Amino acid sequence: MANENQEVWQKSYVLESKGEYEKAAAVLTPLLNNKTSEYVLLRYGWLNYLQGNYNDAIDSYKRALNFNSRSFDARLGISLPLMAQGRWKEASRYLKQVIAQSPYHYLAHVRLMICEEGLHQWKTLEKHSKSMAAYYPVDAIILVYLARSYAWQDKEEQAKAIYQRVLKRFPNHIEANYFLKGQQN
Description:
This protein is mostly helical. The chain is built from 11 helices and no strands.
């Protein structure tokens, strides 16, 4: 039985690597029963997300959360299909749950910034990204969100200064270069 399961997992990963997400998920369906493990549900949710089956992905992640109510993986997993559907407030709720338990969880913060951008919460995004940039000073992603928050609030000089910091980290960053070239005209 253990060898059979190992073969199922291996086959699922190989199919995923080929972009055959539906087949990769189908291989796991025999493992989805009343004795389903948390990991099967997380993996099944991921593969449904990759297929664009967002509601199925959410259901699978929620079932995984029922197995383990402390799971960051399930909450982060739920956030992806919610974000893909533009359900920013719902995604934010799950991300804030992760942050409440792990205050400096990088991925949760970055996804929450994406939600704040989706909700056009520019002042909130400014405060959030500025705070996180203090903890992750070399991270360009966080700086890009800070620059965007400034740009959308018409704080051109602040945006320019932050985009210049981005270019120190990634000289060919398309967005930063585009913004700064627009500032020269």
